[in-house]
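Suppose a colleague, Dr. K., hands you the sequence of a protein chain of 449 amino acids and asks what its three-dimensional shape might be. Before reaching for any lab equipment, you can write down a predicted structure in token form. Begin with the sequence itself:
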Amino acid sequence: MSYLPNTDKNRQEMLDAIGVESIDDLFAGIPEAVRFRGEMNLPPAMSEMELVKHMTELAGKNLSTDEYVCFMGAGAYDHFLPSVVDHILSREEFYTAYTPYQPEVSQGTLQSIFEFQTMISELTGMDVANASMYDGATTVMEAALMAGRLVRRGGDRVLISDSVHPEYRTVLETYLRGLEWEMVEIPTRDGITDLDALREEADDETLTVIVQNPNFFGLLEPVDEIGTIVQDAGKAMFTVACDPISLALLKPPAESGADMVVGEGQSLGNPLSFGGPYLGFFASESKHIRRMPGRIIGETVDVDGVRGYVMSMQTREQHIRRARATSNICTNEALNALAATVYLSLMGKAGLREVAEQSLQKAHYAAEAIDALDGFSLKYDAPFFKEFVVQCERPAAEIVQSLMQHKILAGVDLGRFYPEMENSLLVAVTEKRTRDEIDEFVSRLEGSA
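The predicted structure, expressed as tokens, is then:
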């Protein structure tokens, strides 16, 4: 059965409307050297039944953390997901909903987004949060752009610690290159932002200083001291990227003087999903609300005094005055934000703290056991949350490959991001890991040495 809807007559009518005689004329702008003219050598067509069987077999080759014990992290974490999260997400009114432009028919979606904003504000200690963003990397980029809109002077320098996720820094550098802004990477000392280097670089030309806490190596940054340095630098804004799970234990960034708090929200009720989709969160002070990217959902009452929800701001302004848009964010990842909202609602303050405490305690149990092995040691002597760096006597990539044979994802080879750290392994431990799994991991590490 053919699924091509256009007849030869349809195609000719479209070509006539465009003003060209043939399909080849339509693609005349494509150089001949890059055009494909040969046979595509496609396999024989399948029936629907055969195709479903074939695709199921292909999908079966994908393995997940259901089959492997996961000690990988670096921004994507294997936390436990209560089954009710997926059940609520799968309800058709949420699963098939599009952007809620019409509040009268979108109250459920608007309410869930409003509650997401409220929870993120409570976690971060900030006044207001937006209706989520693409991922952690784009929130860092958007924070820098927002700082540029708020700090009205000739400065164009963005300072970012070398301990911020390398992929976040790459995304930021890509955007700033187009703006011809200067991105200055502040070096680390023993895995932590070098405060002396930061003091030297922070000046009245600085738009924002960006740090991550816990940082990419899992270590806790001296956020209070960094906040003071930023404040002393003049009008520069202080941006903190963080793991939302850690905020159940750590002091909210707002109390350290943060102007913007951003990060990756995958750990809040979202699966690893082979890398996405994820969601970013973005929170700031209420006085900056009109400069924030994305959308803001507000609570109000209707003519009868009944509580209702509306899209108060959509600073992308995609309908009118697009030249004045503060962001090109085109979706607010509402389904992922709903997962985070359901997760946080289920966990509550006590449950979220339990997740954070178990992750902390199990990570330290694993770190102490690994540090006692011959051939392995902790690279940094600093407080950490649920991730830590192991120094190995052989390349970390080899260890990762070796332990995969035993259905263990040993961690992240830091040589991928820092060439000088090819013998360093970034290990993450969440509340899902049992004592037996950790002990087996340590035993396999010892054998791999």
